[in-house]
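As described in the Methods, two query proteins were run sequentially through the folding procedure within a single session, without resetting any intermediate state between them. The first query and its resulting structure tokens are shown here.
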Amino acid sequence: MSQPRTIVIAPKRGFQLIDWRELWAYRDLIYFLVRRDVKVRYVQSVLGFLWAIIRPLSTMVVFTVVFGRLAEIPSDGIPYPIFSYAALVPWTYFSSSLTAATGSLVGNNLLSKVYFPRLIIPLNPVLSNLVDFAIALSMVGVIMAFYGIAPTAAIAFLPFLVLLMMLTASGLGMWLSAMAIQYRDVKFMLGFLSSILMYAAPVVWPASLIADKFPEHGATLRLLYGIYPMAGVIEGFRAALIGARPMPWDLIVPGAISALVIWLSGALYFRQRERFFADIF
């Protein structure tokens, strides 16, 4: 008769930022949580997945009227509806993922009941929101067809921009989720922070305004502005999908470096704090 198998959970020796083998071992849990989030989001919903399109589409209508017609903000010669919608698709994903990741640890009963890599929790909304993102992105093709705009070869860079968008959302999500479980002020700060980040990003206005307003220092200011990763992501989405301007590498490159720093520092801070989650919870 075979002996019963014993599993011993012991502290790890040495430092490891992320245990990728452990995350892979818990891939079934990741799949279950992502699937659960997608199903719960639209349970007993009449419109179902159409909400993924309605949110950015309705915001596009408001922005078109307020900023495109009344304020007459320039849009690089692009019809303002497609100009704003192409930016709202990545921004809506980023904002939704950041909000969900920030509050993912607070009130999560699994923290004190069973062991699993805690990093799975804030990463879960970053993955599950990709479903909504893909649905909303498909609407871009419909709007482009309506305005007679054809995609260009720059669309090949879209996967890289999506990865950069996910890196930024997950990095800030790890930072804020680890802080929110101890400092509940983070929850109240998030709405305020999200509004600031949106208007700081070129969602309702083009990044070309920087060079137009400050022609002598435009190139330097754009490089500094590129430190904000979502600036390069949003302008890159417009270039990749609409092709009115070349890919803004002067925004994307510093944004990619900044996103990597945010992600690595977020993972480091999360790993340092996760041993206290159950006690604080």
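Immediately afterward, the second query was submitted; its sequence and tokens are:
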Amino acid sequence: MTGAPLPGRIFQGIPRFFHELYRELDEQGRSYTPLCQDKTRLLLLSGAEKAFWVQNIWLNPFKFEFDTISEAANALRNIQRNWAPVLFTQFRRGALIQEKLPALPDRKRPFPWKAPDTPMGCWTLLDERTLVASPCCTSAFPGGIIEFEENKTDPPSRAYLKLWEALSLAGTWPQKGERCIDAGASPGGWSWALSELGAQVLAIDRAPPEGRILDRAGVEYLKHDAFTLRPEDLGKTGWVFSDVICYPPRLYAWIEAWLASGLCKKFVCTIKMQGPSDNESVRRFAGIPGSRVVHLHHNKHELTWFLV
């Protein structure tokens, strides 16, 4: 059973940032069809173009009419094992269907952890007898959401969670002794996460990270505006990281210099928005060969670009 294929892909919006998805689609002149009553969470779009302000994209959606809860669950189970519900109505009926599917791991993940290769499907109910699902999505996490085992004592902020998420998606991370540049390091959340991996960290910022971060083995501090330093000033490095609050074009110019220098080949950077999103700059980042731009579960009004 595959049901009736839907013409296109389903874009799953991000709570609090639905307006950014609408703005992105309007800039591209793309039309869409809301699938749910609140007209925000799930949008059906034709074509294979991407969007960045999404929590998840359902790649092969279909619609299935069913009579019983068992029939709906069997239809999904016959396709594959892993299914995550994304419900906006019929919550009780949806819970009964999910109970009949193989359980998904609900524990929080330790880091390092690599996103699995097995497909993660998503499904929802439009009404009590209509199911929409996709066996393959852009996110390997249930509904596009991952939760980590947090360290609530050592890091000075929760910013390290988005770094963990980006590295989990990338499937690789700095190794022990590998040199890393952390631009905009203060108060030190990313430097903490990198030093936990055993990396050698050069933390660059006009304000120093917290003292407990500077006391960690392998962390060196340079008081400077990172973007006024040329790659040749800093030398060859394994990774460049940036969580700097700045306008996206400034970050892009700095990364462009790094790419031209050949002194680093692995990057993770936060593209922070100040006011309306700068989607033109986002598309420039996405156009860098081999790279990705995503909105992480732990991102705020920002996107993450990485090249590994």
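The two ends are 38 Å apart (CA to CA). We note this only descriptively and draw no conclusion about the first query from it.
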